[in-house]
Write a structure and sequence with these properties.
By secondary structure, this protein is of the alpha+beta class. Helices cover 39% and strands 33% of the residues.
Amino acid sequence: MSEEISSDLSPTTESGNAPRSNRRTTLVSLVILSAVTLGLLAWWLWPRRAEPAATATEAKTAETTAEKKEEKAGEAAPSRVELSAEALKRANIETAEVTSQALTQVLTATGRLALNEDAVVRVGTFVDGRVVHVFAKVGDYVRKGQTLVHIHSHELTDARGAVAKAKASLVEKEKALAFAQAEADRAERLFTAKAIAKREVDQANAHVVAIKAETELVKAELERASEFLEHLAIDQDAPDEVAIRSTLSGIVTKRLITEGTVVSDASDLMEIANISTLWAVAEVPEAQATFARIGQGVNIQLSSLGDATISGKVVHIGTSLNPETRTVQVRCLVNNPRGNLRPEMYATINISGGAAPQGLAVPREAVQEVNGEKVVFVALENNAFEKRAVQLGREQGNLIEITDGLQTGLRVVTKGGFFIKTEFLKGSLAEE
């Protein structure tokens, strides 16, 4: 009985343990699978996280290295140099003291030379006709009164006819006046002899007055005709042609006619300019327009004449702005006694103003350029020289204003600076 019961219970016990064993196996498998998955994920992500970190580290290292190199380069560039007594003598160095001066304010503007329009005339004619001879061309110098053109005109014939007619009429009127005066004198004698009435004497005298008035009219007509004929300016070698003469000594700048051109009393024939004076026309920015004043002196530089400098003065300031360039036109009068200046030459116009506040100034020769930087060399003790970077300001003659980098009392090299500059450059190369 007990054996049967035992045999009956054995299968039941084995079947109850089987699910527990399966659950353990499944759990172990899941743990192993998770571990493998995490391992693979870590293996896949690790190089990608390390790479940016390495890149950032390398960049930082490179930056630090570059900064060190820059610091080293800055330290390598010498700011002082010492010369031996022999080198100092060979360089023939001269110095000048940095001083405080009141530099004149100067407005610099670009411009050009132009004709002085107050010294330009247009030559015309007072008659209708045809041009038969032209005696001047563009660029010729002509004198006042010189014949420029001959014109064949019927008005010359008419003028001569008017003069001849007026002369003949005057002769007739003078004869008539003499006869009327004789009749009036005769009437007076007859009236004295009581041979005629007073009325006849008055009539004779009235006739004399009328003839005198007619004679005066003819004289005036003759005078007008003669003046017009004289105004036509006839040359002796061309009595049948009207001579047109220059009213000004100067250069022919325009010729508007040729031989055969038909002209009238409203025609312009030539343009003549006296170039003993010219205009220098500057375009001044509106922000600086108030700087210019009538009568101010100007210095004008002309590159076409080897940077020659000429003097002048402001004679006109425009009353309105150029809407496109936003500039005001300033005209300056310039003397040109030798005639070597020409209209349309480009010019740099320096308009001088009042004195400005005090500022440091050094001779122009003291300023050198090293690696694109403006510098001066300051003389120290024991034949030493220091390089100083400076900021430049205004210029006046041979002086340049120093707005930053120097103090009064220092001495700067004005001669031999190139030699010192070479020594500095040699020092820089040696450090490298």
